Write the structure tokens for this entry.
Amino acid sequence: MHTLPAPIELDELDRRILDQLQRDSAQTNQTLARLVHASPPTTLRRVRRLVQAGIIERQVALLDPARMAASLTAIIEVSLDAQSADQLDAFEAVLVQEPAIQQCYRVSSGPDFILIAQVADMAAYQALALRCLTGNPRVRNVRSFFATHRSKFETYIPLPARPGGLASP
């Protein structure tokens, strides 16, 4: 059973830093400091604290799938034949190792998992499905949907408007 981590207190400066980094994490510390109205050493120290606390998990470049080889997005529902913690954990361990699966959620009141996969084409999807889903004897049902248009994709997490805690690792 996963327990929620203890909250970490964020002040207004922390929230401004997180807001700016979610918009563009590639900006220099000097630019970030100017945007959040703090000195560069203070800003750098705060960013390091947010990283150490696990609030900032990682910094990445977001690619446009339409401009890359992986242009088919599949939203996949998966139900297993049994829902014991061991079976869910074992199946999830396989999924998180698969590069084509970008997101993996355990869900309740319906399928056991919702997956978001990015593949080159239908043949690549079929290979993924055989490798991770339909080839697994514990999988009872797979239902896939294919995106025809992406109207929104956002990684921004809304921040609390006033001082308060966020979960730390």
About this structure: The chain has a mean pLDDT of 90.
